[in-house]
Design a protein that fits this description.
Elements: H1 2-35, E1 39-42, E2 45-48, H2 54-71, H3 74-77, H4 92-114
Antiparallel strand pairs: 1-2
Helix pairs in contact: 1-2, 2-4
């Protein structure tokens, strides 16, 4: 049970501290570029200029991967069907999401290393 609690605490830390920081970063810089009309146009689509730099775009992908991980978090999907085990990933719903979750986690880790 201690390992499951440790995994849960670490994942909460990643979602709150890391993903939260990146969400705030992107909202802040998007609003700054929109207010100053610093937008790049691609046809009819306009994007904030900070996303035209590789760091801005990479961090946006990281944020998207972290949000996808949160949505697919097996522990959250097993909260109601946990067979008496606290913070388990092994239930029917969680097992179905383990592979896609691991793909998102791998992609997020690679982007972390890139940044």
């Amino acid at each position: 049970i201690e390992i499951r609690i440790a995994i849960f605490v670490c994942r909460v830390f990643v979602y709150v501290c890391s993903m939260g920081q990146w969400v705030i970063y992107h909202v802040k810089f998007s609003m700054k570029d929109i207010r100053s009309n610093a937008l790049m146009r691609f046809g009819r689509c306009a994007i904030p200029e900070y996303l035209c730099q590789w760091q801005g775009l990479s961090s946006l992908f990281l944020t998207i991967f972290l949000l996808a991980m949160l949505c697919m978090e097996p522990i959250l999907h097993c909260m109601q069907n946990n067979d008496g085990f606290l913070f388990t990933e092994h239930c029917a719903e969680g097992e179905a999401l383990l592979f896609p979750y691991s793909v998102m986690a791998t992609a997020a880790m690679l982007v972390y290393f890139l940044l």
